[in-house]
Predict the structure.
Amino acid sequence: MKKSEVVSHIFHGHIPKTAKHEKGLGYAPTNIALCKYWGKRDTELNLPHTSSLSIALPDKGSMTTLTLNDKSSETIILNDKEIALDSVFAQRTKAFLDLFRANQKWYLKININMNIPVAAGLASSASGFASLVCALNDLFDWKLHKNDLSILARLGSGSAARSLWTGFVEWHAGVRPDGMDSFGEPLAFEWPELCVGILTMSSDEKPISSREAMQTTVNSSLLYNSWPRKVSQDLSIIKQALQVKNFALLAGTAESNALAMHATMLSSWPPICYFLPETIAAMHKVWDARKQGLQLYFTEDAGPNLKLLFLKEDTARVQALFPEVEIIRLFDQV
Amino acid sequence: MKKSEVVSHIFHGHIPKTAKHEKGLGYAPTNIALCKYWGKRDTELNLPHTSSLSIALPDKGSMTTLTLNDKSSETIILNDKEIALDSVFAQRTKAFLDLFRANQKWYLKININMNIPVAAGLASSASGFASLVCALNDLFDWKLHKNDLSILARLGSGSAARSLWTGFVEWHAGVRPDGMDSFGEPLAFEWPELCVGILTMSSDEKPISSREAMQTTVNSSLLYNSWPRKVSQDLSIIKQALQVKNFALLAGTAESNALAMHATMLSSWPPICYFLPETIAAMHKVWDARKQGLQLYFTEDAGPNLKLLFLKEDTARVQALFPEVEIIRLFDQV
């Protein structure tokens, strides 16, 4: 099935053609998965093999402002800099907008402001596409349900499906070939004591995109066959840990899930290894600290950087251990 | 089933009591697995979940000399130094000998010479137990078939089952609960151009023994469920590669198999990570060199050190890349 068919389905064949407001605004936070999304059952629609669960970073995200452009092409401004229309970023954005205009002749001036640390592996495309969808919803007055916005954001970037909400979000894998049951769902848990700290090991570009790494894993790693069972178990443990506020259970399961994801990559061919020597050094440091009684865990996405998980009361000890850590706010109360 | 029952079975209930020779001699090489042994279906008998395949290092091994002791206890001399009888090494050796003497009153002077680099992760216990079994066979004139010697060596240390032969050896997992079908088999391939180079990253003691790491993996890693299928596939590819002398296929499969083994450990809980920062740095160096066209691969056992795999013609290039590499002879012809 094609993305355009999904869009047509959501709009019952009638995609609004006229901007209802002068400006369309959309904000979406980025998110960190505690139970990872790794591997697609449909690469066209970004449908995952498994469900996943994330926590939003409310202060780190993308603000997108849309206005109709008077030129017959897009203008894209990212953090106050105009982006070349032949860049990968612009091409992906344009291809996404094409889904909504079919043969219509409107063009947008797209102003995106992201305050996501560059190269920290904080899924800027998730927050970017989610904010773009929200801004389109505003501009054209789509009045879509958030589930549908989540589905549309997913067509841009898989994990964008989770960036429509703050707090904890579960992205249901769904089973339908058209993916109409594959969207995010906010989970009604708050945990103001929970902290995330970013350890940036490298700002170099990734040696392999997560899109490509995922596909190589699915196609070549025999251990990936056990990944769905691992996710299903971890997801249920994490939700249970959220229910009873058991930090060690939550963070330990998140760490194990991330390591298992990297394990599926290591066992791919060619091997995919996002670990840098510094990544492994930091992991050993975390494990040593844990043996000394510190409740410190980590998660790692498709990049070399670690995201530390700890409780607010341990902030000083974590900062003493990792003076370079960037601590990220998760809940308003903190 | 108990080890003593297996021994009794092999000797049809009549274990020879009398030394036939004044001295018993046994030599056994150590071995490096190209398809790994990871996980036991029976921890008492060291029966593996999967078959495995190794190459012997003919010059690196253990020479064991046995004589009857005039004291009523063992004397154990390892590399010209007497070992305390309450040490782990002596206790394991003594427990092994107990299998053969039941209530008989003989004691041995055991002289073991190993020329295996310390802490390079070269499975000294494999070669040690295999040489001890050969020396017992000589001293008591057991006249056992090598399959039976392999089974007996396995009771001491799993991978010792492969150390009874030089060259390539397959250790059949077997299916019998008594393990009488779980022994090594030499494979009639020679490959004088094949080279192994040891990269020693650390001489520190392992943070966790392979025996314990294996058990934690089997008990806690969901990805381990896919390990038997991975081994079965790799084993068949490696044998095919040996048949047609396809080095890239052989070494690539060995590398993938080793990475998958470490992947099962990473996804265990608590996580098991034998990688040091230096290990990861060396891996990236190997992968980069391969992208430059060098046919260089690695395998890694339950320790931080890498064993490089390459062809003789590339020796100079490998030494230029890794000046510290220790190159190990595999075949007499080399």
